[in-house]
Design goal:
With about 300 residues, this protein is of the alpha+beta class. The protein has nine helices and twelve strands. The protein has a four-stranded antiparallel beta sheet with strand order 1-2-3-4. A four-stranded antiparallel beta sheet has the order 5-6-7-8, with helices on one face. A hairpin with a 2-residue loop joins β2 and β3. It is globular, with a radius of gyration of 24 Å. Bound molecules: zinc ion.
């Protein structure tokens, strides 16, 4: 085994062996006074300004990188105005908004969320993926991403009338999940370096993880809805979310449930676990648990008879 120190990290290695990822793998890692991060055999070598060196297991840092890059963010992280989920665009892709409305009590007033509201129904009129991506993630706008969890369909080539070929081939569908975000694109453009660093590597990002979870939620919701014999579900759960009013606290997530259908008057609804405080971080689990028990979730804002239940 070579114990030679590799001085130049390639793009993939430079994304993996960072101070933050070393700290994710080793909680007591001191990330101050570092003059260089190198690779030596199975270890990552950290050199300090006083000349001292420490080694850290490469495998653990890679695992920390992967689980961080692919982590599931909370339910509200990628909802647009009015709890809008990803919206269908062209080329097998969707517009995924960042949850600017839900990061803060005043989030709906930020220029980003106002731009989202302004643009939400207009993206469909654009047909160039590059243009849409630029609008979504420019220096001035940070609205969201273009995402194709089932693979981006390449635009058809224009038909060449002078061509001898009488059959124009369909543009291929790339089956690989795709996202316009910086993290995914960096992996894609350094694919062979990532693949030689991480066994079985395939490009991925937090947006793809979130999208898949959201899609699973929609499927489960349809199942729960269709399983009621009358066609109208009796077991319903209404939810509300109040984003935090500062940048330290969590938001409040509240659920009311009934066995008398979504239109039931307020008196037929009960607070779910009134003694517990739920936050945005509980939302996924609560939704899936409720649906598992046969309850169909509805945004509380869509049920006017429950308005009085929730203090502003
Ligand atoms: Zn992404």
């Amino acid at each position: 085994m070579s114990i030679q120190t590799q001085l130049e990290l390639n793009q993939a290695q430079a994304s993996i062996y960072t101070r933050t990822n070393i700290r994710r793998a080793f909680q007591d890692f001191d990330d101050t006074s570092i003059t260089g991060i190198y690779l030596r055999g199975d270890n990552c070598l950290v050199v300090r300004s006083d000349g001292s060196e420490q080694t850290y297991n490469r495998q653990l840092i890679k695992a920390a990188y992967s689980s961080y890059t692919n982590r599931l963010k909370d339910f509200f992280s990628y909802l647009g105005p009015n709890y809008r989920g990803p919206s269908v665009w062209h080329n097998n892709a969707y517009i995924l908004f960042k949850g600017w409305n839900y990061t803060h009590a005043l989030g709906h007033l930020t220029s980003n969320s106002q731009l989202q509201a302004h643009w939400a129904d207009k993206f469909i009129h654009l047909s160039d993926p590059a243009k849409v991506t630029a609008l979504l993630q420019s220096d001035q706008t940070d609205l969201g991403h273009l995402i194709a969890p089932d693979g981006l369909r390449l635009p058809n080539r224009p038909i060449d009338l002078d061509s001898d070929m009488d059959t124009e081939e369909e543009a291929p569908v790339m089956g690989d999940p795709w996202c316009s975000c910086g993290s995914y694109q960096r992996q894609l453009s350094n694919l062979s370096d990532f693949a030689s660093e991480i066994q079985g590597f395939r490009p991925w990002c937090i947006h793809l993880t979130w999208f898949n979870k959201y899609r699973e939620l929609l499927c489960k919701r349809t199942e729960a809805r269709n399983s009621s014999p009358s066609g109208t579900p009796e077991k319903c759960v209404a939810w509300w979310y109040a984003p935090p009013s500062d940048h330290i606290s969590d938001g409040r997530f509240v659920l009311l449930y009934t066995n008398s259908g979504a239109q039931a008057p307020l008196s037929h609804w009960r607070t779910y676990k009134p003694r517990e405080i739920f936050t945005q971080n509980d939302a996924w689990d609560l939704f899936f648990n409720m649906m598992e028990a046969g309850y169909v979730p509805f945004p509380g804002t869509s049920l006017p008879q429950l308005k009085a239940a929730i203090k502003k």
